[in-house]
TrEMBL record:
Coiled coil: none annotated. It catalyses: XMP + L-glutamine + ATP + H2O = GMP + L-glutamate + AMP + diphosphate + 2 H(+). Homodimer. Keywords: ATP-binding, Glutamine amidotransferase, GMP biosynthesis, Ligase, Nucleotide-binding, Purine biosynthesis. This is GMP synthase [glutamine-hydrolyzing]. It comes from Terriglobus albidus. Residues 191-399 form the GMPS ATP-PPase domain. The keyword Transcription does not apply. Catalyzes the synthesis of GMP from XMP. Pathway: Purine metabolism; GMP biosynthesis; GMP from XMP (L-Gln route): step 1/1. The keyword ATP-binding applies.
């Protein structure tokens, strides 16, 4: 394990991902984590991340400086370099303003960190404060034309760079990190998908015990499916999955997901067709947040009912488990991912996160369900890798994200059964054509939006007056920012003519050319 202490840089998670690409496990802890927590993970080395502060700020993130005296190898990145300099007796020169950009670094001393790297590399630099006087025993090992770029004290096993090797724009950044993790720290590259699957399955099996039961809500997406398959591998049919039709799924999705989950993944699935119940609650509602709230609450209500039935059934059959107070207990599987875990414990706190979307609002307190989160150590791309190793079909693993409130946030204005049917047809055309053009996997999302705007058209000799449909296609790394995708005109042309000809109720198609920010990906 490599521990990364997070001082609040937007790139901290990237460091962890890069290291995991070497099949070495890495953990991100807030910089305020007690040293005992860090050492409890038995790390081979520690990385101090970048961060937005200056070491002189009154509220500069406070890590225990004793972290510098553990004798474990240490790599400081950006703020990490200044932290090391400041706390080991050097001097950091404060700057008024930070500047980001490319820089050319000349390596003066090819120490172990720079082994195998060329004389000069182009890197992504964050010019802010700079170290002006090095702590005793340190030497400068690289510089840019105007500033210090790297320092080291090989005897103390401390290295630091002012630039960001974890960022893709940094040439040889990955090699540098590999030098640190593999060569200097001696971490073993044994964190492989097989290892993860095996240890997770064993852990879940031990957690749930020989007789315990678990329940999992499926959405048809990657995370919940992989989580379910892992738990199923551990406890077999003592896992029951619940899949709810909320009335705003895509065309034929309710049937298709059930078939895949049962036939291809062998899961025990209870499918609840609550479409009408959802749609009647949504009737007359036009406010986007109100739609989300209704769907969220309704989902919890439906899920609870089913979970309760499952628990009652176990009780009747005499196979239920009970806690010391005699309450029936079972496990709830959730597909929480590592970014959520880091986010909720980060120094910035959850308040600064941009995302405010959650599929499940939480379960009522009186439900005796204990959480299993088999994916809480993984990033999204790692979940896909695990899914592949589990032999899961690509149609699930490569599925584009689909929001919990489904088509409800893509039908602007009121949601009616008619409008849902119209959008389902249009959406199916978009998915088909994007797939046919071989673009589906490159796009973060591609979909249709139904506008409550009617326009005049002409079909044959007939005047038409029907809805407008917007096509949205974006590329993105994580959904936080996104660029509108320049879909080829030919693809747009086919999509447009197919929708207007095949989907009754739409007579005009427009293309959304807004990036995020300032737009959002969804229209509501
Ligand atoms: P926006 O529209 O905020 O979307 O740019 C960013 C990502 O989040 C998805 N999204 C949601 N997911 N419940 C969800 O589970 C929601 O209410 C929700 N709203 C947006 C969106 O599809 C995109 O991937």
């Amino acid at each position: 394990t490599i521990v990364i202490l997070d001082f609040g840089s937007q790139y901290t998670q990237l460091i962890a991902r890069r290291i995991r690409e070497f099949n070495v496990f890495s953990v991100v802890l807030p910089c305020t984590a007690p040293l005992s927590d860090v050492l409890a993970l038995n790390p081979k080395g520690i990385i101090l991340s970048g961060g937005p502060s200056s070491v002189y700020d009154a509220d500069a993130p406070a890590a225990d400086p004793k972290v510098l005296t553990t004798e474990l190898p240490i790599l400081g990145i950006c703020y990490g370099l200044q932290f090391i300099t400041h706390h080991l007796g050097g001097k950091v020169h404060p700057a008024d303003k930070r500047e980001y950009g490319h820089a050319r670094v000349q390596i003066a001393n090819h120490n172990r960190l720079f082994a195998g790297l060329p004389q000069e590399i182009n890197v992504w630099m964050s010019h802010g404060d700079s170290a002006v006087q090095l702590p005793e025993g340190f030497t400068q090992t690289a510089q840019t034309s105007s500033a210090l770029a790297s320092i080291a004290n090989e005897e103390k096993r401390i290295w630091a760079v002012q630039f960001h090797p974890e960022v893709n724009h940094s040439e040889k950044g990955s090699e540098l990190l590999r030098n640190f993790v593999i060569e200097i720290c001696g971490a073993k590259p044994d964190w492989t998908p097989e290892h993860f699957i095996q240890s997770t399955v064993e852990r879940v099996r031990a957690q749930v015990g020989p007789k315990g039961h678990a329940i999992c809500g499926l959405s048809g997406g990657v995370d919940s499916s992989v989580a379910a398959v892992l738990v199923h591998k551990a406890i077999g049919d003592r896992l029951t999955c619940i899949f709810v039709n909320n009335g705003v799924l895509r065309k034929e999705e309710f049937a298709k997901v059930q078939a895949t989950m049962r036939e291809k993944l062998g899961l025990k699935v209870i499918a609840v067709d609550a479409g009408e119940r959802f749609l009647s609650r949504l009737s007359g509602i036009t406010d986007p947040e109100a739609k989300r709230k209704i769907i969220g609450n309704e989902f919890i209500a439906v899920f609870d009912d089913e979970a309760e039935k499952i628990l009652k059934d176990l009780e009747t059959k005499g196979v239920a488990e009970h806690d010391a107070e005699g309450n029936e207990v079972a496990w709830l599987v959730q597909g929480t991912l590592y970014p959520d875990v880091i986010e909720s414990s980060s120094v910035k706190g959850p308040s600064q996160t941009i995302k405010s979307h959650h599929n499940v609002g939480g379960l009522p307190e009186n439900m005796k369900l204990k959480l299993i989160e088999p994916l809480r150590d993984l990033f999204k791309d790692e979940v896909r890798r695990i899914g592949r190793d589990l032999g899961m079909p690509e149609e699930i693993l490569e599925r584009q994200p689909f929001p919990g409130p489904g088509l409800a946030v893509r039908i602007l204005g009121e949601i009616t059964p008619d409008r849902v049917a119209i959008l389902q047809e249009a959406d199916a055309v978009v998915v088909e054509e994007v797939k046919a053009a071989g673009l589906y996997r490159q796009l973060w999302q591609s979909f249709a939006v139904l506008l409550p705007v009617k326009t005049v058209g002409v079909m044959g000799d007939q005047r038409t007056y029907a809805y407008t449909c917007a096509i949205r296609a974006v590329t993105s790394e994580d959904g936080m920012t996104a660029d509108w995708a320049p879909l080829p005109y030919e693809v747009l042309k086919t999509i447009s003519s197919r929708i207007v000809n095949e989907v009754r109720g739409i007579n005009r198609v427009v293309y959304d050319i807004t990036s995020k920010p300032p737009g959002t990906i969804e229209w509501e």
